[in-house]
Predict the 3D structure of the following.
Amino acid sequence: MKRRKMNLRGISDPRVLHAMEAVPRHLFVSPEREHEAYGDYPLPIGYGQTISQPYIVALMTELLELKDTDKVLEIGTGSGYQAAILSLLAKEVYTLERIPALADAARERLRRLGYHNVHVRVGDGYHGWPEHAPYDAIMLTCAAEDVPPPLIAQLRDGGRLVAPVGAPHGFQHLILLSKKGREVSRREVTGVVFVPLRRGTEEGKRP
Ligand code: SAH
């Protein structure tokens, strides 16, 4: 496959580049999309959801400055691709998905491909996953009007959080939060378009 040809623009962290090289993105998209898995654009993953373009995955990962001892929370498992990338750079990855069918498929795919330090659960990511908090890093891969306060509360002192923030289907900023004591600093990185964070789960609507 054409992993080496992915357009990752200015991404330079060697660990992130290695992870992008190592994870077989074509196994996270539907078979009919396999041939374009490494293209410079997002792809549909079913249920109206999308997997981000490779550059955005790499950029958000790089911004978290992960260490291999870190515990990471992701909101929006989707295909499990971003979680697989995170799993190569951190100790444990906890990831929440509100659509059970996507969560089940991602869990099975990650297990089959050997990403055993990723833990997938169905849940409304707005509330985070308090049982494993605090997290060294948190990533949202769906856009909220603002960062949900429970997620900031579950971030470790000194931790970093990256999230798309803005109107659903409208203009959004990728923002990076850093928490130091009671201070939360916030920086806008770039403009992005993500699917919206929706409240509640689709539990009970399993086929
Ligand atoms: N990171 C994914 C892409 C995710 S697309 C990947 O690598 O494939 C965004 C995902 O966020 C969708 O699957 C959507 O169902 C999910 N999502 C939206 N709102 C959510 C919420 N409140 N809690 C958990 N997941 C949510």
About this structure: Helices lie at 14-22, 54-63, 81-87, 100-112, 149-153. The pocket of S-adenosyl-L-homocysteine is lined by residues 45, 49-51, 75-76, 78-79, 81-82, 96-99, 102, 124-126, 141-142, 195, 197-199 (CB under 6 Å). Strands lie at 43-46, 49-51, 71-75, 92-97, 118-122, 135-140, 155-166, 172-180, 183-192. The chain has five helices and nine strands.
